[in-house]
Design a protein that fits this description.
By secondary structure, the protein is α+β, with helices and mostly antiparallel strands. The chain contains 4 helices and 7 strands. Strands 1-2-3-4-5-7-6 form a 7-stranded mixed sheet, with helices on both faces. The protein binds coenzyme A.
Length: about 160
């Protein structure tokens, strides 16, 4: 059974020991980088970072970082409240067992319920050649938005409402 627990003083060191396969490292930042990013975002206060450890039957197998980005009423280009799924990884030893899909389904439930369900959508960016991740996201209903980020990665979007 897959469960998600927020990263805390009790589990962050174990999270730092997880990694993807060598040829996947170009697709995802290290968990150390992600936890530093979550720390900085929390300090700044504008966005709400939600870093989660992913457990399979009580054993840590992966990590995800979702970032709640409330609309900015002062900025017409930023008028939508969304979640940005900044990171999703399953350690190389535990991939291909359905854990990524189950973790995503649970994460989507958390994002739907967060702050009374105020997020309109989940967005994420994914390298065009990351076939495993693309298959996972599209099978869950994410659609290619047609936009590319500064690294040439494609933006995907899933409506939450
Ligand atoms: C992407 C990732 C999180 C998937 O996790 P996982 O636990 O291995 O995936 P699952 O076993 O739950 O598989 C879910 C779906 O993903 C797709 N998938 C997973 N591995 C795949 C592979 N090797 N080739 C093609 N599709 C694959 C399939 O659609 C699969 O569904 P199916 O089994 O019904 O066909 C994992 O491969 C990973 O951590 N990759 C490295 C980090 C990364 O690229 N993160 C995403 C950044 S955008």
């Amino acid at each position: 059974m897959i469960t998600l627990r927020e990263i805390s003083a009790d589990n962050f060191e174990e999270c730092l020991c997880l990694s993807v396969a060598e040829d996947q490292k170009k697709h995802v930042a290290s968990n150390a980088y992600s936890l530093a990013e979550a720390y900085v975002l929390r300090q700044e206060g504008r966005y709400v970072p939600l870093p989660y450890a992913i457990y399979a039957d009580g054993k840590m197998v992966g990590f995800a970082l979702a970032i709640f980005q409330p609309a900015d009423e002062q900025d017409p280009e930023d008028d939508e409240t969304v979640f940005y799924l900044a990171r999703m990884m399953i350690d190389h030893r535990y991939q291909g067992r359905g854990y990524g899909r189950q973790a995503m389904l649970q994460l989507l439930e958390i994002m739907k319920a967060f702050q009374d369900g105020s997020a309109e959508a989940v967005v994420l960016s994914c390298s065009q050649d990351n076939i495993a991740a693309r298959n996972l996201y599209t099978s869950l209903g994410f659609a290619d938005s047609g936009y590319l980020d500064e690294d040439g990665d494609a933006y995907y979007r899933l409506e939450l409402k």
